[in-house]
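ARCHIVE CARD
Drawer: 12
Card no.: 0347
Subject: one protein chain, sequence and derived structure
Cross-reference: see card 0346
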Amino acid sequence: MTKITFIVGSPTHGSRLFALTQFFEDRLALAGYGIDFISAADLPAEDLLRADFNSPVIRQVIAAVEEADAVIIASPVYKASYSGALKTILDVIPQKGLQGKLVLPLFIGGTIAHLLAVDYALKPVVAALGGTHILGGVFAVDGWITRLENGGFEIKEELRERLESALTELRSELTRYAALTPAEEQAV
């Protein structure tokens, strides 16, 4: 079974970022993909801040990334970069932990001016972790997602179309990767 691991850098559960991750998680699970969901809001802060590699939770994070065929990295943008909470998770991933994996960024920020945070902040770290196949991903502006009274979210149609496009790209690349021989995989 193809496995996808989400790494979510929002320190709170109520973030609009979860509208984006839920969009992907629901559709990928329905399509039969295995899903692991790592959220900074659920992890012990002390284990992350100390990079405690003896922590069972940190070992589970590392295992989830190792077993993944694709990693969806989601974060709010704070001060023109991804969250510090996301950085603490990325810091416990081994040096080549993203090698051979598809990486899809999902970012959300207050204005479109933060769009380049993926290129200037995230991509160098992903490359340092061995990631070479970073998909286009999606950047959303907070105002494109409305929080509903029932606790859910409403996503503007334009953003929904971009999410569908990114999902199609991810599924297509996963299919292509699955068809590669081990030697071809090493070349990617």
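Annotation on reverse: The radius of gyration is 16 Å. The chain has one domain: 3-187.
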